[in-house]
Amino acid sequence: MNRIILLGAPGAGKGAQAALIEEKYNLPHISTGDALRQNIKDETELGKFAKSFIDKGELVPDDVVISIVEDRLKKDDCKKGFILDGFPRTIYQAEALAKFSDIDYVIDVEVPDEIVVDRISGRRMCSCGKTYHISTYKSDTCEKCGQKLYQRKDDNQETVMDRLKVYHKQTEPLIDYYTDKDKLVTIDGTKSIDEVFKSIMNILK
Ligand code: AMP
């Protein structure tokens, strides 16, 4: 089965790769970041609670994201597999996940910090899910759907540094955690989106 975790720093390209895997393998793309942002947009209680953590580049408390993922994985479309993007981010989350689902692949998309900072501070988003970088895309509307692009509030240089610190301290230990479980595969995330996707297809086949 293809029950996949995409690990990696913010800006490693997990979201872009998850979208490609979703399309090719017909698996649901589950992003806790997207789920939290949707709650913020809908002004739910959960969104109001999560916003202060997200804006500061901190992690939202474990139990909040664990229950989002646990509920989502119960849905029928997850029976044949799924892609987790941005979850788990702590050992505590990984241990909770292990209680409600098995995992087949943990793919660590490796990118050095300098590249992360450049990618994230130049990243522009479209609400259709497509992302761009200002160095290679000059328009302010999406080429796919025509909507206006925007910058995520937490995609500024200062918050990126905080998110990287959080990543190294709280999420990176998952590399050893999943290596010990013989699940981890590391790929070079500095390559082009297509090349990274090729490496992922080689792993999943
Ligand atoms: P992302 O879109 O994955 O970069 O997530 C954006 C923000 O949402 C993160 O910086 C965290 O504040 C929060 N978040 C997303 N996923 C998690 C998670 N698994 N655990 C805790 N916080 C999360």
List the helices and strands and how they pair.
Blueprint: E1 2-7, H1 14-25, E2 29-31, H2 32-41, H3 45-56, H4 62-73, E3 81-85, H5 91-100, E4 105-110, H6 113-121, E5 123-125, E6 131-133, H7 157-171, H8 173-180, E7 184-188, H9 193-204
Parallel strand pairs: 1-3, 1-4, 2-3, 4-7
Antiparallel strand pairs: 5-6
Helix pairs in contact: 1-9, 2-3, 4-5, 6-7
The structure holds adenosine monophosphate (AMP).
What features would you describe in this structure?
- It is built from nine helices and seven strands.
- It is of the alpha/beta class and 205 residues long.
- It has a domain of 100 residues: Rossmann fold, CATH 3.40.50.300.
- The strands form two sheets. Strands 2-3-1-4-7 form a five-stranded parallel beta sheet, with helices on both faces. It has a two-stranded antiparallel ribbon with strand order 5-6.
- Strand 5 and strand 6 form a beta hairpin.
- Helix 1 crosses helix 9 and helix 6 crosses helix 7.
- The protein is globular and about 45 Å long.
- It starts with a strand and ends with a helix.
Annotation keywords:
single chain; 205 residues; alpha/beta; Rossmann fold; 5-stranded parallel sheet; two-stranded antiparallel sheet; 7 strands; 49% helix; globular; binds adenosine monophosphate
Largest sheet: 5 strands, parallel
Q: Determine the structural class based on helices, strands and strand pairing.
A: alpha/beta
| Approximate helicity band | 40-55%
List unreliable stretches of 5+ residues.
Answer: none
Radius of gyration over C-alpha positions, nearest whole angstrom = 16 Å
Bound molecules: adenosine monophosphate
The CATH first-level class of the domain at 2-28 and 75-111 and 169-204 comes to Alpha Beta
The CATH architecture of the domain at 2-28 and 75-111 and 169-204 is 3-Layer(aba) Sandwich
Order of helices and strands: EHEHHHEHEHEEHHEH
Distance between the termini: 10 Å
